[in-house]
Amino acid sequence: MTAEVRAITLDAGGIPVSALLAEPVSMPPRAVVVAIHGCGMSAGYFDSRARPGLSLLSLGAELGYSVLSVDRPGYGLSAAHLPEGQALADQAATLHAALADFAGRHTTGWGFFVVAHSNGGKLALATAAAGECGDRLLGLDVSGLGNRLAVAPHQLPGQDGHGDWRRHWGALRLYPPDAFRLGRALVSPVPACEAREAPLWPELYPGIAARVHVPVRFTFAEQEQWWRFDEDAVAALTEPLAAPTVRVERLPDAGHNISLGWSARAYHLRALGFLEEQLLALDAAPAEARHVMRAAGGSRRSPVLAGAR
Predict the structure, then answer these.
(1) Which of 24, 137, 253, 306 is the most exposed place for a label (fewest CB within 10 A)?
(2) Which domains does the chain have, with CATH numbers?
(3) pTM higher than 0.85
């Protein structure tokens, strides 16, 4: 039986946060995959209907996870309450409040694992750095984000448009034909605060990265055009991180909007495979450590993960 994808609303301290949710049909979730969209998009980014098998929500639920794809602060239902959007630190606090509301009403298994795209990756890293989710955060899988720009700052997406739109996609052959027609419904205005803060990311990143203490995997599409991912750029991305595990991978036959392309399923399987590794470390921990983890809500990181960089 295929899992239903339904719209829900979370209460983030009085701010409504809209989201899409898919849950396993026949079992409690092993964990919750929190999906965070990028600039000028919406929660449906991770629920591509251009072809069967491309939706992260459907795939994750089939594999035993709840998948919660949220509209970032300033998008969806929260836009009316946050017309300018929020600075990154405030977005992290809002996301934490929304996830706390979700956890109060849903089974979360071992905890939360974040799959984030582009500017959503900034929010994922900022949330981890702030320790907002504490031991409930299992790790991060980030695509379409670096810390060295491949464009001039003024070329970044802003309120007056979405920058050089071709950079979002790469070669059109990398996407199902219906992706562009269906994708029009996913496009959202970029909040002013986000547009102002975007050029500052290379300066903000090292301080944020130094406070990230959960496993992190970065993926760059073969035709990524917003961010550099040469050897020097990758070193600048990974070295500031305090994470116990850091990986950087390249995905062939993909453009920046990975989860809308033919490559979506391959990427989603790799991301969920990274989550499986974190759960394996928890399952393989000594019995006494496992007891402590379960008593703490089933999400405390095991020493098995340490030093795996």
Answers:
(1) 306
(2) 5-305 (3.40.50.1820)
(3) yes
